[in-house]
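Worked example 3. Consider a protein that binds NAP.
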Amino acid sequence: MENRLQGKRILITGGSAGIGEACAERFAAAGANLILCARRIARLRELQAGLVERHQGQVDVFPLDVRDREAVQNFVSEIAERKLTPNILINNAGLAAGLNRFQDGDWDDWDRMIDTNIKGLLNVSRLVIPLMIAAGGGHIVNVGSLAGYQVYPKGNVYNATKFAVRALSEGMNIDLAGTGVRVSMISPGAVRTEFSEVRFHGDREAAAKVYEGYTPLSAADVAEAVFFIINAPPHVNIQNILITPTAQRNAYCVERDGKT
Ligand SMILES: NC(=O)c1ccc[n+]([C@@H]2O[C@H](COP(=O)([O-])OP(=O)(O)OC[C@H]3O[C@@H](n4cnc5c(N)ncnc54)[C@H](OP(=O)(O)O)[C@@H]3O)[C@@H](O)[C@H]2O)c1
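Given these inputs, the predicted complex is written out as structure tokens:
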């Protein structure tokens, strides 16, 4: 397969762990230059050093909380001033917080999910897209989820945020007609990352149970699918990839130890 990522600049939100980190590794290996942002700058610096050593490309890292609109404005101004306009934006920063029946839902968990998964994606996209339009084109990949297709018990607000990501991906793609910017989405099922630990507020035992009895996706599996999306020739838009572990037939049907 032809590699079209050589020399491209790719901005990944939530680049410090999981899917974002695996994407960084995959794209750097393909010769891309990276801009990585997340709240944990120490982890980003460590990742930056390793990426530069292994792949030699340019890697810029920024501390950023995508919920903080003013911080996002400053960040985007800085990349514009430093002529680091990305060709590709991966809107990956996101989380699930809690797994509760709606009537037991926690307000803070709800705010964190809505503010990060929906408003954070809006904050970054609204400011980066004009730079891409001015540059004559670009590609945005929003990280949705299987949870954006099927609502599962106790998923309520997380499901709602990922349904929103799906609607926003479609809406952006339509509105960007005529600009040279294409919009895609990747919708993973269960991926073994820090996701479940974050969902269960650091409870590692509860997190481990999510992946018991079957082989979940790895972050690298998802990164490979994102690579396929962004490596497509300019006249092709892979609008969505729904990718699950083979054992996860849908959100409700998971073979554990070979049984459903
Ligand atoms: N794992 C799954 O099963 C799964 C399935 C479908 C979709 N997804 C989606 O995939 C995306 C990545 O999740 P993951 O599985 O890779 O989880 P992860 O290992 O917990 O990584 C999440 C990343 O998002 C960043 N992040 C979280 N809140 C942020 C904020 N306010 N501002 C900036 N960065 C923030 C984290 O960095 P800092 O903590 O350093 O800020 C981290 O780099 C999320 O959108 C998630 O909803 C995951």
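Take a moment to read the result before moving on. The first strand starts at residue 9 and ends at 13. The chain is about 45% helix and 20% strand.
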